[in-house]
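Dear colleagues,

As part of the handover before I leave the project, I'm documenting each prediction I ran so the next person doesn't have to rerun anything. This entry is a single chain, and its sequence is reproduced below.
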Amino acid sequence: MMLRMCTDHGYFRGEDCPVCGEEGKFLMSSYELESLGRILAGILRHFPEKFGLDMDEEGFVDIYKMVSAIKRKRGDRMRWLRPTHIIGLVETDPKGRYQVDSNHVRATYGHSIELSMSLPTDNIPERLYYPSDPGEVDQLLKNGLHPVDRTMVHLSKTWNDAYEAGIHREGPDPVIIRIDAEGAQNNGIIIQRAGKTVFTVEEIPSDFLSLSDEVDIELSRKEMMERGIDLDEKVPEKEKETSDPDEPSDDDDLDVEEGDLTDKDADLLEDDETDEDLEFEDDDITDDDLDIEEDGSDK
């Protein structure tokens, strides 16, 4: 879905402004939007240093310096990039994964690097959810939730949000754990709002965990209807069409120097998809990504 800008109503994704119906100014194709999204995820969540960028303790990076760094790495292929493209991506992101503040941008969740982020702690739902592999659910219910390959535990707003994240991460039949978020907060556990449907926490003790039930599913269905999502018509994740095989590969979009992208880096970017961050298939990043060759884009 392409990115455009309406003079009266700002950035939007699609053919026409959802408010006035005007076509607006073209900014990025769907492919360019996805490519920039992949780069942003890598820089803001995992390896800003690979682009020569400094990140403060809150996770913010200077947008103007980021644009220069990306253009330096990508050369002519992203000579069109301007700060407005990054701001437009952030403001139209359906999950609310990024934040812009005073010419700086950050990812609000999904980090593998240690930060001291301050995020809102108000308006936390009474219940939150977490997907588990069926073989690990008993252990989680006994020992609680702790970070695995991220610095924080990521919780979902509804049963459906957790289920979709679990399909990517755990397989076709994840077991959904319910978190007593209200009880956890009343006991001093800080839960933060990191996105529109994602919440982060350092850990959740087992006292606040239980298996979800039909009530959770019904509450989730009502929430999805309020979002305008018809679950009966929704295409299962495993049946979604993949990208056009004739379109250039997104594997080049990180474009770091040879040897810069390690096995861990590739795994982190694949794991980002469990949060539905870029909506790519699991095999989009392959072992070939670890052998990216310099193509003169730094010249």
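Residues 127-226 form a domain with the ADP-ribosylation fold fold (CATH 3.20.170.30). The chain is about 30% helix and 15% strand.

All the best with the project,
I.
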